[in-house]
Amino acid sequence: MDQTQIDALRAQPVPAFSHLIDGKHVAASDGGTMDIKSPIDGQVFTTTAKGTVADMQAAITSARAAFEDGRWAGQSPAARKKVLMKWADLIEANALELAVLGVRDNGTEINMAIKAEPGSAAGTIRYYAEALDKIYGEIAPTSSDVLGMIHKEPVGVVGAIIPWNFPMMIGAWKLGPALAMGNSVVLKPAETASLSLMRMCDLAHEAGLPAGVLNAVTGEGAVVGEAMGLSMDIDVLVFTGSGGTGRRLMEYAARSNMKRVYLELGGKSPNIIFADAPNLDEAAKVAAGGIFRNAGQVCVAGSRLLVEASIHDDFVAAVAKATSMMRVGDPLDMSTAIGAVNSEVQLRQNLGFVDTAVSEGGEIVLGGQRILQETGGYYMAPTIVTGVTPEATLTQKEVFGPVLGVTPFTTDDEAVRIANATVYGLAGAVWTSNLSRAHRMVRSVRTGVMHVNTYGGADGTVPLGGVGQSGNGSDKSLHAIEKYINLKTAWIKL
Ligand code: NAD
């Protein structure tokens, strides 16, 4: 990747996008479209289909027909594996084009997007392609006059609703295991980041995925997302996004066919720094990256910094210094460390959180405002607020933006109490040289992922899932497969 290639791709016009239903690109049933604005400059650069309830129903009907006639589920594992491996290769071969398209759509800095989006998506698809012919059923330890067999069957039609922060990566976390196990899928990308994911679905068909196995419908969550949630013909719904939408999806399931619902929701993850951390300068740099990359729009972002009181002022100064060295700006410039906020709505929300933090006694030590307004884009200075109490809004509510709240603590018990004082439980970290303390903190802090002397970067071999109101079920690793299969018992009298 070099800047000339990126600039050439960014100069290309982007044609209008439509749904992908039954292997064909189709417009919305009423001809509706949505303007797609780039967060880089606030300008409209293409349109997508604005889906209707009828469009969603057509996609679900197509997926159901594909599942029932076995055009994918009925293929041998080796044949499915070949298609998925080819798909991963095509994603890699088109990585830069996909990454630039995605960045124009959602604003993530390109040096992160290239790895986290096509890079990660290709790796995920390949991981599940390689796994799919190594998943066995079971023979139960029964008495000798019966045979108890446990088959692992695809669930049928999976509905997947994706957020805007990492559409390809999170899309692949759902699509990889769902398709590997033989299911059909209907995908609903986010309004403000659908393009690269839609293009990735086209590549699946180029790789040989049969028509109808993967359908994708763009449009508003409240219309097409709701239609998916209320469908009587979706067997499993998988979702990444906000808690509010997650709650609605559970209601939709209860009101319709009681489909299984798996939720990956937000977090308010504590990054806990003890004075005995092995390298406090390194910890400060990683803490800054752990909250500010992708403008804080990362579900596992370390958005709460808990610092042992004896080093509080020096450590906050070190984080502020490390943050000041991260260039905010055009996400398609390779030297940018922090790109754009995804939308104007999100930017306004972020600034509102800063105002609330100040009104509740917090002190801004860095940032706090919108910047680069002359570009027309949505940029925010990375913001650090000290004096944030455990009860404050900045502790209790997810911002999903570049805002770090800092809270001091004096003992291990107090650190755990503050860390666990929210409804969330997605990620966290502890920095210490004391092995016993590290293990105690890993046990005591209620999260799905706990880092020790690092933040982020957990690869596809380990699960990512939340506890509490951060969600249920896991993406990544072989554990994710459990969401996309049914166990069926065969009880045979011998
Ligand atoms: P969101 O809930 O508004 O939207 C997510 C998706 O849900 C979008 O595709 C949207 O169109 C759809 N949607 C919205 N309303 C719907 C409805 N009524 N019915 C069905 N679908 C609907 O969330 P967002 O603003 O796009 O994403 C940000 C949130 O996602 C943050 O809270 C963040 O923490 C969370 N997130 C979590 C993870 C994780 O792995 N746990 C990863 C990324 C983001």
What does this structure look like?
38% of the residues lie in helices and 20% in strands. The model has no long low-confidence stretch (mean pLDDT 98). It is an alpha/beta fold and 494 residues long. The protein is built from 15 helices and 21 strands. α5 (110-131) packs parallel to α6. It has 2 domains: 3-265 and 471-491, Aldehyde Dehydrogenase, Chain A, domain 1 (3-Layer(aba) Sandwich), CATH 3.40.605; 270-459, Aldehyde Dehydrogenase, Chain A, domain 2, CATH 3.40.309.
What is the alpha-carbon Rg in Å? Answer: 23 Å
The proportion of residues in beta strands is 15-25%
Described by strand count, sense and barrel closure, the largest sheet is: 7 strands, mixed
Q: Order the strands across the largest sheet as they lie in space.
A: 14-17-18-13-12-19-20
Q: Could you say which small molecules are bound to this protein?
A: nicotinamide-adenine-dinucleotide
CATH superfamily membership of the largest domain: Aldehyde Dehydrogenase, Chain A, domain 1
- Let me know the average pLDDT: 98
Helix content: 25-40%
Query: Which structural class matches the secondary elements?
Result: alpha/beta
CATH class of the largest domain: Alpha Beta
CATH architecture of the largest domain: 3-Layer(aba) Sandwich
Separation of the first and last Cα atoms: 63 Å
Q: Specify the overall morphology.
A: globular
CATH domain topology of the largest domain: Aldehyde Dehydrogenase, Chain A, domain 1
**The number of domains:** 2
Low-confidence stretches: none
Count of DSSP helices?
A: 15
| DSSP summary, beta strand count | 21
